[in-house]
Amino acid sequence: MKATPCPACGADMTVKAQKNGKPWLGCSSCKVITLVHGPDGVKRFKDRTGWTAEGAPVAAPPAGGAPAPKAGEPAPKPAPGPVGHAARKAARRGQ
Predict the structure, then answer these.
(1) In this structure, how many other beta carbons lie within 10 angstroms of the beta carbon of residue 42?
(2) Cβ 9 vs Cβ 30: under 8 Å
(3) Where are the domains positioned within the chain?
(4) 3-state SS of the chain?
(5) Does this model's pTM top 0.85?
(6) 3-class secondary structure for 70-84?
C-alpha cells in the first residue's frame, strides 16, 4: 500500500479499519484524523492506495469530549458560564 501523507504535517499516516470496514487515517505526530465516507470515497481510496480491510487493524477513531450517556441515563448538562459578546467584554474589563 502506498503511504498517505498527513495534510497538516506531511508525516506518513497510519490506516486502520473502522468497525464497519471503512478506512480511517491517523497521524501519530500531529494527531490529525481523516475519515473516508461514502461508497465512492471508499472505492477511490482503495483504488488509489491498494488498501484492503483484511488484515488491517480494526479500531474506532478517538472520540472527542465526554463519552455518550448510556441508554436510560440523562445527558450531561453543559458547563455553566457566561457566553456571548457581553460576557467576553466584561471579562476583558475584569468585571
Answers:
(1) 16
(2) yes
(3) 1-62
(4) CCCCECCCCCCECEEEECCCCCEEEECCCCCCEEECCCHHHHHHHHHHHCCCCCCCCECCCCCCCCCCCCCCCCCCCCCCCCCCHHHHHHHHHCC
(5) no
(6) CCCCCCCCCCCCCCC
Residue with cell 491517523: 26
Cα separation, 11 vs 64, in Å, equals 22
Nine cell digits for residue 86: 457581553
Whole-number CA gyration radius for the chain: 20
Distance CA(64)–CA(31), nearest Å, equals 12
Nearest CA to 2 out of 46, 57, 61 is that of: 46
Pairwise CA distance, residues 56 & 77, whole Å = 38
pLDDT, tens digit, for every residue of 63-89? 555 566 667 777 777 666 666 777 777
Return d(Cα 21, Cα 1) in angstroms, integer.
17
